[in-house]
């Protein structure tokens, strides 16, 4: 065993050494004999050993978990699939602190086919194991009611609570109700419908609920043709109306090629400490079930790990036995008899795209709901994400970003923008005119600006930012660090550089840059600050150049400011042409009164 294991976990060494090379589930207990983590493994010995042998290379959260382990117990199973199911059941039972939490406290309804003579079909939220058949659960309640309404229109069934035993029907004590007279029931209570005929309707409805629309349509079509062949045209027309209703429903519900049958589709979206997984069940090209769950990460789980957990949980919950699962990326684990597909083109890719749109929409809705309840939720989430992405030890509540601006070394300036709680604080923006640098030297300019900024903050006792961003690569970053070192501020703030070309993030003393996800909120905030600093600096630089370019003669005209002077220069190109311009020409550019002032000024000069 590694030295780290001997140092911290010598009492667990014998347990880890004797673990078998078999698939199974392991459980970590704390010193109070409480389960704090449940995991599954293809190879128990290799998986559990990895926690201890790599203690110095794993994340801080996992290190915290490992240091709380007081005991290890395990269960050996036959296959990895058995391990997945057992892990899922144990997590739901014990809800360990360090396992991913599934936020889904809703009780979804089911369609129940009651275990009784002449079964009733109805929605329920209570599953009773009395031999009745349940379909669901239905996250989309509207879809469930649509299926029930379609079933009632196609196959009239009873909805009363009478006990329709053979003895009760023969007794003649049961009487038909209004539902029979208006055509919603065929009257099995008085023997107008046989149990065999009723069961045929139940079987057809079961196929519709399961999504096997094609099977039911084929049976109706055959029945219609048999009635027509026997010249029972009224019955044939009645069946045709049912067939038209079924075709109408199928055309509305089919989203891809009907040849795509009995397929599960999963997609995932993650942000900060949360993950969202969308599930769609597809039968004959139609989506018959849709559900999205929210997952809370505990140990910085990857999207692959979250999706693996979600697939096991959702397929178990919805009792799915689909032989094919469509996913957005290859999966490392295997399920016997199940194939994973990562589509690139075609109808299956369309299904995956639809699932990904669903999960993104769900994520946005959840964020909006949280912001309504807690307006600062989004800010905290962004700051927590930035702290994690940028490997910081404290939340970057205050961030300052610097950018240099000069054209061929003329009028060099720098700009600093400040974001507080991930929002611009324009009252804290600052301009800097470069005083000690001659020519286009970005490194020296950055060194001067950083020194001036943080010397002033320390002299005035004002709070320092948690994060400093400099626009540029290693050179600008080194210049900034040099000034901070002179001020004795090294290590008190996180300092990074961002290079424009590939959006590379540079850290002090790192040979290679870090690349953030192009869609991450952290990179978006950094880019926003970099662009804002550039805009703010360019605006100041332009004003300074304009002021520098202004002729002293023009600035001497009383009542005529810089804006009017620039209008004159743009129109007449030089002070000489302005001096020779007529009063009318000047007034056309500046207006009557200002034009008169400029004209009088140059007339006095000549006289």
Could you explain how this protein is built, in words?
It is a single chain. By secondary structure, the chain is of the alpha+beta class. The chain folds into five domains: 3-99, 3-Layer(aba) Sandwich (GIY-YIG endonuclease), CATH 3.40.1440.10; 110-253, no CATH class; 263-371, 2-Layer Sandwich (Alpha-Beta Plaits), CATH 3.30.70; 386-530, UvrC, RNAse H endonuclease domain (Nucleotidyltransferase, domain 5, 2-Layer Sandwich), CATH 3.30.420.340; 550-606, DNA polymerase, domain 1. The protein contains 22 helices and 19 strands. Strands 13, 14, 15, 16, 17, 18 and 19 form a seven-stranded mixed sheet that branches. It has a six-stranded mixed sheet with strand order 4-10-9-8-11-12. The longest helix is centred in the C-terminal third of the chain and has 29 residues, at 521-549. The termini are far apart. Residues 1-8 have low confidence and may be disordered.
How would you briefly describe this protein structure?
Helices cover 46% and strands 18% of the residues. It has 607 residues and is an alpha+beta fold. The strands form 4 sheets. Strands 13, 14, 15, 16, 17, 18 and 19 form a 7-stranded mixed sheet that branches.
